[in-house]
Design brief:
- By secondary structure, this protein is mainly beta.
- It has 3 domains: 6-112, Elongation Factor Tu (Ef-tu), domain 3 (Beta Barrel), CATH 2.40.30; 119-204, Phage tail protein beta-alpha-beta fold (3-Layer(bab) Sandwich); 207-376, no CATH class.
- The protein has helices at residues 22-27, 55-62, 131-140, 173-183, 290-304, 316-319; strands at residues 6-13, 18-19, 28-36, 42-50, 70-77, 80-97, 102-111, 147-151, 187-192, 199-204, 213-217, 228-233, 239-246, 253-257, 270-272, 278-282, 308-315, 328-332, 340-352, 355-364, 367-369.
- The strands form 4 sheets. Strands 1, 2, 3, 4, 5, 6, 7, 11, 12, 17, 18, 19 and 20 form a 13-stranded mixed sheet that branches.
- The longest helix is centred in the last third of the chain and has 15 residues, at 290-304.
- The mean pLDDT is 87.
Protein backbone atom coordinates (compact mmCIF):
# COMPACT_ATOMS: atom_id res chain seq x y z
CA UNK A 1 0.00 0.00 0.00
CA UNK A 2 2.69 2.48 0.98
CA UNK A 3 5.66 3.31 -1.21
CA UNK A 4 9.12 4.27 -0.12
CA UNK A 5 10.64 3.05 3.13
CA UNK A 6 7.29 2.11 4.70
CA UNK A 7 5.38 -1.04 3.78
CA UNK A 8 2.01 -2.03 5.25
CA UNK A 9 1.07 -5.71 5.56
CA UNK A 10 -2.54 -6.78 6.13
CA UNK A 11 -3.34 -10.24 7.47
CA UNK A 12 -6.89 -11.55 7.98
CA UNK A 13 -8.43 -14.85 8.98
CA UNK A 14 -10.74 -16.59 11.49
CA UNK A 15 -8.11 -17.49 14.14
CA UNK A 16 -4.66 -17.56 12.53
CA UNK A 17 -4.55 -14.64 10.06
CA UNK A 18 -2.88 -14.96 6.67
CA UNK A 19 -1.74 -12.31 4.18
CA UNK A 20 -4.67 -11.10 2.09
CA UNK A 21 -4.61 -11.42 -1.73
CA UNK A 22 -3.01 -8.64 -3.74
CA UNK A 23 -6.44 -7.61 -5.05
CA UNK A 24 -7.59 -6.81 -1.50
CA UNK A 25 -4.38 -4.91 -0.69
CA UNK A 26 -4.74 -2.77 -3.80
CA UNK A 27 -8.33 -1.89 -2.82
CA UNK A 28 -7.26 -0.69 0.65
CA UNK A 29 -7.50 3.11 0.58
CA UNK A 30 -6.94 4.18 4.18
CA UNK A 31 -6.36 2.85 7.69
CA UNK A 32 -7.03 4.46 11.06
CA UNK A 33 -5.86 2.91 14.35
CA UNK A 34 -6.36 4.28 17.85
CA UNK A 35 -4.40 3.23 20.95
CA UNK A 36 -5.26 4.86 24.28
CA UNK A 37 -3.87 4.28 27.77
CA UNK A 38 -6.64 2.96 30.00
CA UNK A 39 -8.90 1.97 27.10
CA UNK A 40 -9.18 -0.65 24.38
CA UNK A 41 -7.66 -0.09 20.95
CA UNK A 42 -9.68 0.19 17.74
CA UNK A 43 -9.19 0.31 13.99
CA UNK A 44 -10.95 1.17 10.75
CA UNK A 45 -10.13 -0.14 7.25
CA UNK A 46 -11.57 1.59 4.17
CA UNK A 47 -11.67 -0.29 0.85
CA UNK A 48 -12.70 1.15 -2.50
CA UNK A 49 -13.60 -0.83 -5.63
CA UNK A 50 -16.15 -0.99 -8.45
CA UNK A 51 -19.71 -2.01 -7.65
CA UNK A 52 -19.47 -5.24 -9.65
CA UNK A 53 -16.29 -6.34 -7.88
CA UNK A 54 -16.56 -9.65 -5.99
CA UNK A 55 -14.49 -8.19 -3.14
CA UNK A 56 -17.55 -7.00 -1.23
CA UNK A 57 -18.97 -10.51 -1.11
CA UNK A 58 -15.59 -12.08 -0.34
CA UNK A 59 -14.84 -9.77 2.59
CA UNK A 60 -18.34 -10.16 4.01
CA UNK A 61 -18.23 -13.96 3.71
CA UNK A 62 -14.94 -14.11 5.59
CA UNK A 63 -16.94 -13.37 8.72
CA UNK A 64 -18.97 -16.56 8.18
CA UNK A 65 -15.87 -18.79 8.33
CA UNK A 66 -15.57 -18.36 12.08
CA UNK A 67 -16.90 -16.26 14.97
CA UNK A 68 -14.25 -13.57 14.43
CA UNK A 69 -12.37 -12.00 11.57
CA UNK A 70 -8.94 -11.56 13.12
CA UNK A 71 -7.05 -8.66 11.57
CA UNK A 72 -3.35 -7.88 11.94
CA UNK A 73 -1.68 -4.75 10.55
CA UNK A 74 2.11 -4.56 10.41
CA UNK A 75 4.12 -1.51 9.33
CA UNK A 76 7.64 -2.27 8.12
CA UNK A 77 9.81 0.83 8.41
CA UNK A 78 13.38 0.66 7.15
CA UNK A 79 13.20 -3.13 7.30
CA UNK A 80 11.89 -3.30 10.89
CA UNK A 81 8.34 -4.74 11.27
CA UNK A 82 6.13 -3.06 13.88
CA UNK A 83 2.70 -4.54 14.71
CA UNK A 84 0.16 -1.70 14.83
CA UNK A 85 -2.98 -3.62 15.79
CA UNK A 86 -4.05 -7.21 16.34
CA UNK A 87 -7.79 -7.35 16.68
CA UNK A 88 -11.13 -8.53 15.37
CA UNK A 89 -13.65 -6.97 12.98
CA UNK A 90 -16.90 -6.03 14.70
CA UNK A 91 -18.80 -4.07 12.03
CA UNK A 92 -19.15 -3.85 8.23
CA UNK A 93 -20.51 -0.85 6.34
CA UNK A 94 -21.05 -0.86 2.58
CA UNK A 95 -21.71 2.46 0.80
CA UNK A 96 -22.31 2.15 -2.98
CA UNK A 97 -22.13 5.30 -5.11
CA UNK A 98 -24.69 5.06 -7.92
CA UNK A 99 -23.23 7.92 -9.96
CA UNK A 100 -19.58 6.85 -9.97
CA UNK A 101 -20.17 3.11 -9.85
CA UNK A 102 -17.76 2.79 -6.94
CA UNK A 103 -18.37 1.03 -3.65
CA UNK A 104 -16.78 1.85 -0.31
CA UNK A 105 -16.49 -0.89 2.30
CA UNK A 106 -15.49 0.10 5.84
CA UNK A 107 -14.45 -2.56 8.35
CA UNK A 108 -14.23 -1.39 11.96
CA UNK A 109 -13.02 -3.39 14.92
CA UNK A 110 -11.22 -3.46 18.23
CA UNK A 111 -8.17 -5.13 19.69
CA UNK A 112 -8.24 -8.70 21.04
CA UNK A 113 -10.12 -7.62 24.16
CA UNK A 114 -13.13 -7.95 21.85
CA UNK A 115 -12.66 -11.73 21.90
CA UNK A 116 -12.83 -11.67 25.71
CA UNK A 117 -16.14 -9.79 25.82
CA UNK A 118 -18.45 -12.22 24.02
CA UNK A 119 -19.63 -14.88 26.49
CA UNK A 120 -21.03 -14.34 29.97
CA UNK A 121 -19.06 -16.71 32.22
CA UNK A 122 -20.87 -15.84 35.45
CA UNK A 123 -20.81 -18.63 38.03
CA UNK A 124 -17.38 -20.19 37.44
CA UNK A 125 -15.75 -20.74 40.88
CA UNK A 126 -12.11 -20.01 41.70
CA UNK A 127 -11.46 -21.77 45.04
CA UNK A 128 -8.32 -20.69 46.87
CA UNK A 129 -7.11 -18.44 44.01
CA UNK A 130 -5.92 -14.85 44.57
CA UNK A 131 -6.86 -12.24 41.93
CA UNK A 132 -3.63 -12.46 39.91
CA UNK A 133 -4.00 -16.26 39.65
CA UNK A 134 -7.59 -15.88 38.45
CA UNK A 135 -6.49 -13.40 35.78
CA UNK A 136 -3.68 -15.70 34.61
CA UNK A 137 -6.06 -18.68 34.37
CA UNK A 138 -8.63 -16.68 32.41
CA UNK A 139 -6.05 -15.37 29.94
CA UNK A 140 -4.58 -18.84 29.37
CA UNK A 141 -7.52 -19.83 27.18
CA UNK A 142 -6.64 -17.08 24.69
CA UNK A 143 -3.19 -18.45 23.89
CA UNK A 144 -4.63 -19.64 20.57
CA UNK A 145 -4.75 -15.96 19.53
CA UNK A 146 -1.08 -15.45 20.44
CA UNK A 147 -1.90 -13.61 23.68
CA UNK A 148 0.87 -13.80 26.27
CA UNK A 149 -0.20 -12.85 29.84
CA UNK A 150 1.91 -10.35 31.78
CA UNK A 151 0.30 -10.35 35.23
CA UNK A 152 1.80 -8.45 38.17
CA UNK A 153 0.63 -9.61 41.65
CA UNK A 154 -0.77 -6.84 43.81
CA UNK A 155 1.01 -5.60 46.92
CA UNK A 156 -1.45 -7.48 49.12
CA UNK A 157 -2.21 -11.01 47.91
CA UNK A 158 -5.68 -11.95 49.12
CA UNK A 159 -5.84 -15.77 49.15
CA UNK A 160 -9.47 -16.71 49.92
CA UNK A 161 -9.92 -19.71 52.22
CA UNK A 162 -12.34 -22.11 50.48
CA UNK A 163 -14.13 -22.92 53.72
CA UNK A 164 -14.93 -19.20 54.19
CA UNK A 165 -15.62 -18.00 50.67
CA UNK A 166 -15.07 -18.99 47.06
CA UNK A 167 -14.69 -16.18 44.48
CA UNK A 168 -17.22 -16.44 41.62
CA UNK A 169 -16.73 -15.18 38.07
CA UNK A 170 -19.00 -12.22 37.28
CA UNK A 171 -19.79 -11.18 33.69
CA UNK A 172 -17.60 -11.77 30.65
CA UNK A 173 -13.89 -12.47 30.93
CA UNK A 174 -13.07 -8.86 30.06
CA UNK A 175 -15.54 -7.44 32.57
CA UNK A 176 -14.27 -9.67 35.37
CA UNK A 177 -10.59 -8.97 34.66
CA UNK A 178 -11.25 -5.22 34.59
CA UNK A 179 -13.20 -5.39 37.85
CA UNK A 180 -10.33 -7.23 39.54
CA UNK A 181 -7.94 -4.56 38.24
CA UNK A 182 -10.07 -1.68 39.54
CA UNK A 183 -10.21 -3.24 43.02
CA UNK A 184 -6.44 -2.79 43.45
CA UNK A 185 -5.87 0.32 41.31
CA UNK A 186 -4.46 -1.64 38.36
CA UNK A 187 -5.00 -1.33 34.60
CA UNK A 188 -5.64 -3.98 31.97
CA UNK A 189 -4.97 -3.78 28.25
CA UNK A 190 -3.88 -5.93 25.30
CA UNK A 191 -1.09 -4.55 23.13
CA UNK A 192 -0.02 -5.95 19.77
CA UNK A 193 3.55 -7.25 19.54
CA UNK A 194 6.41 -7.55 20.05
CA UNK A 195 6.28 -9.66 16.88
CA UNK A 196 3.40 -9.98 14.39
CA UNK A 197 0.78 -12.49 15.48
CA UNK A 198 1.43 -12.09 19.21
CA UNK A 199 0.06 -9.71 21.84
CA UNK A 200 0.83 -8.86 25.47
CA UNK A 201 -2.10 -8.90 27.92
CA UNK A 202 -0.94 -6.64 30.76
CA UNK A 203 -2.62 -6.65 34.17
CA UNK A 204 -0.77 -4.50 36.68
CA UNK A 205 -0.04 -0.95 37.82
CA UNK A 206 0.18 1.80 35.22
CA UNK A 207 3.91 2.34 34.79
CA UNK A 208 5.35 5.69 33.74
CA UNK A 209 9.02 4.78 33.93
CA UNK A 210 11.34 3.19 31.40
CA UNK A 211 13.39 4.07 28.33
CA UNK A 212 11.86 7.10 26.55
CA UNK A 213 11.14 7.10 22.83
CA UNK A 214 13.13 9.48 20.58
CA UNK A 215 12.39 13.12 21.38
CA UNK A 216 9.77 15.22 19.61
CA UNK A 217 11.62 18.30 18.34
CA UNK A 218 9.93 21.70 17.99
CA UNK A 219 11.39 24.91 16.56
CA UNK A 220 14.76 23.26 15.87
CA UNK A 221 15.05 23.98 12.11
CA UNK A 222 16.32 20.88 10.29
CA UNK A 223 15.85 18.75 13.40
CA UNK A 224 12.08 19.34 13.56
CA UNK A 225 10.23 16.02 13.43
CA UNK A 226 6.65 17.07 14.31
CA UNK A 227 4.14 18.95 12.21
CA UNK A 228 2.18 20.51 15.09
CA UNK A 229 2.51 20.49 18.88
CA UNK A 230 0.40 22.54 21.28
CA UNK A 231 0.35 22.53 25.07
CA UNK A 232 -2.34 23.34 27.61
CA UNK A 233 -1.84 23.84 31.35
CA UNK A 234 -4.88 23.40 33.59
CA UNK A 235 -3.92 24.45 37.10
CA UNK A 236 -7.45 23.80 38.42
CA UNK A 237 -7.49 20.10 37.49
CA UNK A 238 -5.25 18.86 40.31
CA UNK A 239 -7.06 16.89 43.01
CA UNK A 240 -5.85 15.58 46.36
CA UNK A 241 -7.36 12.14 47.03
CA UNK A 242 -7.92 11.12 50.64
CA UNK A 243 -8.26 7.43 51.45
CA UNK A 244 -9.73 6.05 54.67
CA UNK A 245 -8.14 3.22 56.64
CA UNK A 246 -10.21 1.66 59.39
CA UNK A 247 -8.64 1.21 62.82
CA UNK A 248 -8.98 -2.44 63.83
CA UNK A 249 -9.55 -1.65 67.52
CA UNK A 250 -11.81 1.39 67.42
CA UNK A 251 -13.35 0.82 63.94
CA UNK A 252 -12.82 4.54 63.30
CA UNK A 253 -11.73 5.43 59.74
CA UNK A 254 -8.44 7.33 59.55
CA UNK A 255 -8.09 9.77 56.61
CA UNK A 256 -4.75 9.70 54.76
CA UNK A 257 -4.01 12.20 51.93
CA UNK A 258 -2.20 10.79 48.89
CA UNK A 259 -0.01 13.42 47.20
CA UNK A 260 0.78 13.24 43.50
CA UNK A 261 4.12 11.63 42.75
CA UNK A 262 4.04 9.32 45.77
CA UNK A 263 3.94 6.24 43.52
CA UNK A 264 7.49 5.04 42.64
CA UNK A 265 6.15 3.53 39.39
CA UNK A 266 4.61 6.87 38.47
CA UNK A 267 7.18 9.50 39.46
CA UNK A 268 6.58 13.21 38.77
CA UNK A 269 7.59 14.23 35.25
CA UNK A 270 7.18 17.94 35.99
CA UNK A 271 9.26 19.76 38.60
CA UNK A 272 6.51 22.27 39.48
CA UNK A 273 3.15 20.53 39.99
CA UNK A 274 -0.04 22.57 40.43
CA UNK A 275 -1.42 23.04 43.91
CA UNK A 276 -4.51 20.81 44.41
CA UNK A 277 -7.62 22.95 44.01
CA UNK A 278 -10.01 20.43 45.57
CA UNK A 279 -10.10 17.35 47.79
CA UNK A 280 -11.65 14.02 46.83
CA UNK A 281 -12.87 11.78 49.66
CA UNK A 282 -12.53 8.11 48.69
CA UNK A 283 -15.03 6.78 51.22
CA UNK A 284 -15.24 3.35 49.60
CA UNK A 285 -11.68 2.52 50.73
CA UNK A 286 -12.64 2.20 54.41
CA UNK A 287 -13.74 -1.42 53.97
CA UNK A 288 -10.48 -2.46 52.31
CA UNK A 289 -7.10 -3.41 53.74
CA UNK A 290 -4.62 -0.54 54.28
CA UNK A 291 -2.44 -1.68 51.37
CA UNK A 292 -5.43 -1.96 49.02
CA UNK A 293 -6.66 1.49 50.05
CA UNK A 294 -3.24 3.00 49.41
CA UNK A 295 -2.99 1.35 45.98
CA UNK A 296 -6.37 2.80 44.98
CA UNK A 297 -5.31 6.21 46.30
CA UNK A 298 -2.03 6.14 44.36
CA UNK A 299 -3.83 5.23 41.13
CA UNK A 300 -6.37 8.02 41.64
CA UNK A 301 -3.66 10.57 42.49
CA UNK A 302 -1.81 9.73 39.29
CA UNK A 303 -4.88 10.35 37.10
CA UNK A 304 -5.93 13.50 38.95
CA UNK A 305 -2.55 15.26 38.63
CA UNK A 306 -2.19 15.38 34.83
CA UNK A 307 -2.31 19.17 34.56
CA UNK A 308 -0.22 19.52 31.37
CA UNK A 309 -1.62 18.17 28.09
CA UNK A 310 0.13 18.26 24.74
CA UNK A 311 -1.55 17.50 21.41
CA UNK A 312 0.11 17.31 18.03
CA UNK A 313 0.80 15.41 14.83
CA UNK A 314 3.85 13.99 13.08
CA UNK A 315 4.96 12.28 9.90
CA UNK A 316 6.29 8.82 10.74
CA UNK A 317 8.79 8.90 7.86
CA UNK A 318 10.36 12.03 9.32
CA UNK A 319 10.16 10.82 12.92
CA UNK A 320 11.73 7.49 11.92
CA UNK A 321 9.38 5.10 13.78
CA UNK A 322 5.77 4.93 14.98
CA UNK A 323 5.17 6.73 18.28
CA UNK A 324 3.72 4.26 20.80
CA UNK A 325 1.08 4.92 23.43
CA UNK A 326 1.52 3.91 27.10
CA UNK A 327 5.19 4.93 27.11
CA UNK A 328 7.43 7.93 27.70
CA UNK A 329 8.68 10.41 25.12
CA UNK A 330 10.87 13.49 25.33
CA UNK A 331 10.06 16.98 24.04
CA UNK A 332 12.72 19.52 22.99
CA UNK A 333 12.46 23.13 21.85
CA UNK A 334 8.99 23.85 23.29
CA UNK A 335 10.27 26.27 26.03
CA UNK A 336 11.63 25.70 29.51
CA UNK A 337 8.15 25.22 30.94
CA UNK A 338 7.15 22.43 28.55
CA UNK A 339 10.38 20.64 27.62
CA UNK A 340 11.15 17.28 29.22
CA UNK A 341 9.53 13.85 29.49
CA UNK A 342 5.84 13.09 28.89
CA UNK A 343 3.56 10.08 29.09
CA UNK A 344 2.00 9.21 25.71
CA UNK A 345 -1.69 9.02 26.56
CA UNK A 346 -3.11 8.40 23.09
CA UNK A 347 -1.90 7.79 19.55
CA UNK A 348 -3.95 7.72 16.34
CA UNK A 349 -2.36 6.16 13.26
CA UNK A 350 -3.60 7.48 9.90
CA UNK A 351 -2.33 5.67 6.81
CA UNK A 352 -3.06 6.40 3.18
CA UNK A 353 -1.31 5.43 0.00
CA UNK A 354 2.18 6.95 0.26
CA UNK A 355 1.46 8.59 3.64
CA UNK A 356 1.72 7.61 7.31
CA UNK A 357 0.89 10.23 9.94
CA UNK A 358 0.01 10.17 13.63
CA UNK A 359 -1.98 12.35 16.00
CA UNK A 360 -0.93 12.08 19.63
CA UNK A 361 -1.79 13.28 23.13
CA UNK A 362 0.84 13.72 25.86
CA UNK A 363 0.30 14.28 29.58
CA UNK A 364 2.35 15.01 32.68
CA UNK A 365 1.80 16.39 36.17
CA UNK A 366 3.58 19.74 36.11
CA UNK A 367 5.73 22.39 34.45
CA UNK A 368 9.53 22.40 33.93
CA UNK A 369 11.48 19.24 33.23
CA UNK A 370 12.76 16.99 36.00
CA UNK A 371 15.65 15.78 33.81
CA UNK A 372 18.48 17.88 32.33
CA UNK A 373 18.16 16.29 28.86
CA UNK A 374 16.02 13.83 26.90
CA UNK A 375 17.17 11.14 24.42
CA UNK A 376 17.38 12.47 20.88
Amino acid sequence: MLKGSIHLTLLMGPVVPAPVPKLVTEALESVEIKNTAGDKGGFSLTFGFSSDSPLTTVLLLIGQIGPFIRTVLVATINGLPTPLIDGVVTHHQVSPDVQSGQTTLVLTGEDLTGVMNQIDMTGIPYPGMPPFARVTLILAKYAIYGIVPLVIPSVVVDVPIPTNRIPIHQGTDLEYIESLASEVGYVFYVEAGPVPGTSIAYWGPEIKVGVPQPALNVDMDAHNNVETLNFRFDGQSATLPIVFIQNEQTKVPIPIPIPAGANPLNPPLGAIPPFPSRVEMMNDTANKTPAQALMLGLARASKASEAVTGTGSLDVLRYGRPLKARGLVGVRGASVAFDGLYFVKEVKHKLKRGEYKQDFTLTRNGLVSTVPAVPA
